[in-house]
């Protein structure tokens, strides 16, 4: 997923309590390996992850548990915000706690966790690179060694109200100007509808949306060598498209508070014409149980850009094994189970999240049920990664602060980008 997940504050507090209670615990869990040691030990393991809104993650865990009575997996739910999830995992690692065995990492965290030796290297044959999407496999590696397994991939999609565009005689927009014009046309008969929203709250989702705006305008945040190049006319044009969107009402003011779930609920309530979102929204927005007002009325298209089709930021999640967790052999087998074809098919059917096995995107039966799969595959294959950095937490915070300052009018976009360039040069030396 790219960066979504929801969980209650009480659950977050419970996760912290588990973390603190486990600090320095010395149980051998049946394996007795030292932190960061070999992939040995069998028995119970914990799985730290964001909440699965579909319940299919628990379903797969239950399936594993039913056939592994002596190697049970227990889910530990982490906070809603991706940043808060990362912070809790980092805190757990820094005190060398064994509270978490398996970590559900945003793809961009893999390098940081591997470089700090918070996760262990996995056998190369854990993932058959020939069967997985190449961009997904790259996210699981650090210095050409495998430190995680790609379980979910993700590419941004433009969800749109097909019924309203059809009524106006319009096609899905390929550029930001076309999107704005379509909004004006639809508002002529639907004045209350909001035009466009993405993820603009100051958290990881804003980094993703900022990156997409910059790349979709022909710019880059860092170049191929990892050098910051964000202080450019192209980057400014991309950021200005979002700034102007807020100023002109193309993006509703309340969207500055949107993470994935806030935007999803707004789209499902019929409040938005366009919504930048990950694939998981497809199933939820299509439910006919009364929870969605747009079931059967929407479709998806590639993200629009400044002068043509845009570019998605590469999202997704990898499963890694904590260097301090117990029963690593069990953890590795569970990861292989979760990345298997039956498990990925099950997850796609239940959640509409993007799989990492390439064959599922070409399955005729799946395409019938999820017609967006070819569009999604192209989005992932052409997606641009976020900056790869050992100090990624500092990098993403700098990006969020600069983008948020520009979107809220606290800084002109050129000043925000100049400041960001200087900060990234310091962080990415």
TrEMBL record:
Query: Per its UniProt record, what InterPro entries does this chain match?
Result: Bact_solute-bd_prot1, SBP
Please give the coiled-coil regions recorded for this protein: none
Give the source's domain of life in one word: Bacteria
CDD domains xrefs: PBP2_TMBP
Has UniProt tagged this entry with the keyword Transport?
yes
One Pfam annotation, family name?
A: SBP_bac_1
Keywords for this protein = Signal, Transport
Gene3D superfamilies to which the protein is assigned, alphabetical = Periplasmic binding protein-like II
Kindly give the PANTHER family that the UniProt entry links to this protein: ABC TRANSPORTER PERIPLASMIC-BINDING PROTEIN YCJN-RELATED (PTHR43649:SF34), ARABINOSE-BINDING PROTEIN-RELATED (PTHR43649)
Into which family does the record put it?
Belongs to the bacterial solute-binding protein 1 family.
Q: Indicate what this protein is called per its UniProt record.
A: Carbohydrate ABC transporter substrate-binding protein (CUT1 family)
